[in-house]
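Reply to dn_fold:

You asked what the input looked like. This is it:
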Amino acid sequence: MRPGCGQPCRGSRRGWQHGGVTAATDSTLFPRVPDSPDAVLEGLDPEQREVATALHGPVCVLAGAGTGKTRAITHRIAYGVRAGILPPAAVLAVTFTQRAAGEMRGRLRQLGAQGVQARTFHSAALRQLQFFWPRAVGGEVPPLVERKAALVSEAAARCRVRLDRTELRDVTSEIEWSKVTQTVPEDYPAAAAKAGRAAPRDPAELGRIYDLYEQLKHERSVIDFEDVLLLTVGILQDRPDIAETVRGQYQHFVVDEYQDVSPLQQRLLELWVGERENLCVVGDASQTIYSFTGATADHLLDFRTRHPGATVVKLVRDYRSTPQVVHFANALLAHARGRAAEHRLELVSQREPGPEPVCAEFADEPGEAEGVARRVRDLIASGVSADEIAVLYRINAQSEVYEQALADLGIPCQLRGAERFFERSEVREAFVVLRGAARAGGNDALLDDAVDLPSQVRAVLGTKGWTPHAPAGSGAVRDRWESLAALVRLSVDFAAAHPEATLSDLVAELDERARAQHAPTVEGVTLASLHAAKGLEWDAVFVVGLTDGMLPITYAKTEEQIEEERRLLYVGITRARRILTLSWSLARSPGGRPSRQPSRFLKGLRPGTGGGSVPRYGPAVVGGTVIPGGVERGRSTGRERVRRAPARCRVCGRSLTDPGEVKLLRCEDCPSELDEVLYERLHQWRARQAALLGQPDYCVFTDKTLLAIAEAVPGDEAALSRISGVRSRKLQQFGADVLALCAGEELHADAEQDARQDETGR
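and this is what came back:
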């Protein structure tokens, strides 16, 4: 139990069946690096382990909220790297935000898998664009435009159109959507109509603004964010030599949040992968909430069609939320329609029961904010940390009243989506003084009375505004203190994990975290839009302002748009681990007419509106066995390579990483069952084949491969193909001879020569 809060600690629930699995959301700040490939797999549930050991694609992971998708794919990469199957430099993992990419890099580092590239689509594309531009085009890549909105405004002015602030934002968004869907200016009106987009201006007029915007960029020799992808795609399409260079570098691809891929990103991915099959994608169609940016779940839902041989793994064990929260989320999706709804995953909570979700109605918005703030105060008083509480809303304009209500009660808060932690001025200043103190060492008078690493950090950061007690209220002073306090807490955790660490070691850790964007936790209640909350989680979540017109928002007209609003609420609900409150107000201002209606999405879920159509929370049980997600093996197309499972010793079962041991499928010091007569016959046969082909002996099979064959004595092609070194071409060329020798048959030299002549004749 958490001290004083009466709640189970995160991860207190023990294991998969017999206590072996840690919760998917568990992590300590500085965990011990696994000491072997097998140790990387410890604590994974059966479906997560399937993901981690499916090292040759295509693989599609359908992962529900809270089911440990990031855990599964990072352990997959780390296991492949640690087992010697995936060369780190040949792996490219892509996702959609710098924060998510940073988290992935941090986890891979903790698992001992350094050297893997984990980037956003744009970051990976920009890196390639900068490297290949001189070769493909000449000169340097044009600089990125600093203020896109200003350029759009100028383009509109040239069309004699004046845009207010809201229109400017919306027109800019339409141009971005056009580019990621690969729509040119003259095609915009037709494309927008087909997609059912509510254009902020006359579509023809907006198309002209888009065209002039592109002309202005060309005149000023600048590119925008979307051009990074477009230009990279163009180079890879037009220059097969460059495309092959990229494919030679990256052999294995992992794509997180695949439901958010745009057509342009999908095209780039196809050019990266080429004709190969080593692709692993992860996503959840029920969390598709960015279609306004061009994202579509179709690529995820069509993956099996494009890759008939794909392995599909479904993760539905929810380690994040209580059965009560999971039931509420499942019930919400039970009323969903459309293609994404047809592929929804019904989650099964793995946590102990908690309180029922609360639906609360208020007279007006200030009353709702005050009620939420009082409940937050009570939770903090009961022992829930402020940074484990979030208030989520549909649009950012709703935040102000909650900021004020929390400030009135002296509760610190932080706005999500603001400046990134390591870019804050106070954090940059802290890095400077900590680095200076580390260089000075014992010569810095500030450290004279410091007895350990945390006290050294407190002493240094005290010069920048850190104090043992937080300043009262909210605002810039409190925000600055919270940033410095986060660094102090990090130093305490770092010292606990590394008792001998020095200030220089901490500075190196901070530098590494800054590169990975792996920020420490800042205390304070989180205020965030539902979109900004994607990928995050808290012990207690308040989803506020749930009225028709706000969620679903007024401009959601079509069924597809309304269903996306439902998925947005689903994302908000599934952020809660234990405590979930949903609220709305009947009027905007005190004394106003109570004309608002609770969100239609709550019908059947809130008290007094009829029961939901989903069975009461609890896992599905068949014959006494819990039936969670599962694995679907792809059907063979006859084209894909034989997939090789991670190699294990056939004697002791240990994972094998040494290439020689992998060939033998046993440890060097484990007992061998060598058929010495067969081994000698294989050597003699190999010498004859090499002479016939005019090649060295090892070009037929290496000594290790012959030894492996003589130990395994395969009885058919399938068994022979499982021996490392027996690839499809050699299986076709030499398989019949080798199997005949293994069966004790005699081979005649003239028959062998005829076979070789047939082979060379082809």
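The first strand starts at residue 59 and ends at 63.
Hope that clears it up.
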